[in-house]
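tool=predict chain=A
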Amino acid sequence: MNKKQKKMLIRIIITVILIVVLHIAYSILGEGEDAVIPSIYWALIYLIPYFVIGWDILRKSFKGILNRQIFDENFLMSVATIGAFAIALYEGSGEYAEAVMVMLLYQIGELFQSYAVGKSRKNISELMDIRPDYANIEEDGELKKVDPDEVAIGTVIVVRPGEKIPIDGVIVEGDSSLNTSALTGESKPRDVLCGDEVISGCINMTGVLKIRTEKEFGESTVSKILELVENSSSQKSSSENFITKFARYYTPIVCICALALALLPPLFLLITGHDAGWSSWVYRALTFLVISCPCALVISIPLSFFAGIGGASREGILVKGSNYLEALSKTGIVAFDKTGTMTMGIFEVSAIHHGTMESLSLLDYAAHAECFSSHPISRSIQKAWLDGLVWQIDVNTGEAVPVRTPESSKYKHSITRDRVSSVKELPGGGISAIVDNKKLLLGNTRLMKENGISYKECEGDHGTVVHVAMDGEYVGHLVISDVIKPGSKEAIASLKKSGVRRSIMLTGDARNVADEVAAEIGIDEVHSELLPEDKVRYVEQLLEEKKGKEQLAFVGDGINDAPVLSRADLGIAMGALGSDAAIEAADIVLMDDDPRKIAKAIRISRKCMRIVYENIWFAIGIKFICLILGALGFANMWLAIFADTGVMILAVLNSIRALFTKKL
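tool=predict ok
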């Protein structure tokens, strides 16, 4: 409980004590014709607890009038309670405690709401408490703590057991286990070794690590996540926008209705020769005002979305706004990239089919041509050369295959970038480079066809084929194998179970590889050998094929996926291995790259939307019934408070359920 909440609690306690004391005193001194203290003085005395509990509501109401923002819950509560005082004074009934109690119960509801929202924010903050306070830099044999913002790219930092990794980088010394639960929701520690990439926000559990930073702190994973969470509330859902517009028109309308209820019936009675009963109708109008407060809707709907986003964050699913959470609940079509999304994105050169060049020389030239690229396939070719694998000729197929032996380390090679010049990436095709003054082309069949090079089809191997041509002559190809993610098949099955009617794979990979992966994991449709613009075209076609209000989601991880992530109704990016461009373009980020989280995200969003609609119908339904009862004279201030504060408390409690997502 914060200071503001504690002060409110003290005011509530003081008010309760004053009401009890005054009630006892009034029963002894204030009743009957021979009352020691006249009614007017009791009204002044009861103003003391009234101002103790309600001065801030009166102040906000007055400021709203000055700022021409009159019609809000503070105005309604002020008018209703002041009116109740006036009626009690006019009738001489002495029922001043009722007005004080109305304000007291309203403030109790506000305190509860404030505590509930604060509690949910605290839970989310604790789960997302990943911002590091410092980074350790070794100077003269001692560790110096510095602000992570001051650490330059390429600096070696030291992370001791129990400390957070402050900046993304590569381990240059040491091995350990990392707690990634705050990022991914995964409780199982992740083992890391020298040479592994690590992301900021993880907690080092065992050994001391030395990490060479690869990004500035502002561009690191932890900063990106915190930015996403902080900005998530700025993107409002259609339900929230509806409630905002609803409250804007609803409050003036009920104020006019309350005024009409206070004036029209007694005027009609007066004209027809009956007793007008002004005080009775004014009391009904004031009760009507208290009932009409839209607090339950205005408070519980944003809280439901906030809790839903927080619950998703606990599972390693970052949603950039409540509008995306709402759209996610309507997902009917999901399109996937392949590499790094449904497959591990960890490639290895599994075979070399050479033409006019020996396999070792072919790999040498290919590795140098690819040495400036960070694409996973390029890295796999470089790694095969650097690792110095022993390549043997298979007597049955005639192809060169890698053989790992204890002596492999003797054959390790290096890459000399001085041998390379004029490197150019060809989107959707491959790469061109000049190595040792020889012009190389490396890429797919399309690249070979576009350059008029006669190539050989790869037979027998399932994987990505990288054809190599030198000075316009075909010299062979490399086979790059990827591994399907363990959860991909389960992810597709879960999506179908969740009501997703179509799953599609859109990939730039070869047709045979794409077809094989799609068949193994159960994807309905597959479109292969696509350029980035082709993916956008297919997504636009899918958007036209949607049914009703269903939404199209695209899941990807690479730089070339950024355009299509932006074009889809919902872009879902892989956050651990995904590129910064993909994460920036996406609406939802999966922090552990697990495709099974997509179905879970949909279930979380649907639970959140159920809660939102429950709160809307419950709040409007109860208020509508109570408004009718109030207008007919069957409701008093106590029922009015239940219709306002009571409904708000129940709606807030219901909203908090969106935080609990473990069993979904």
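The two ends are 30 Å apart (CA to CA). The domain at 318-343+484-591 is CATH 3.40.50.1000 (Rossmann fold).
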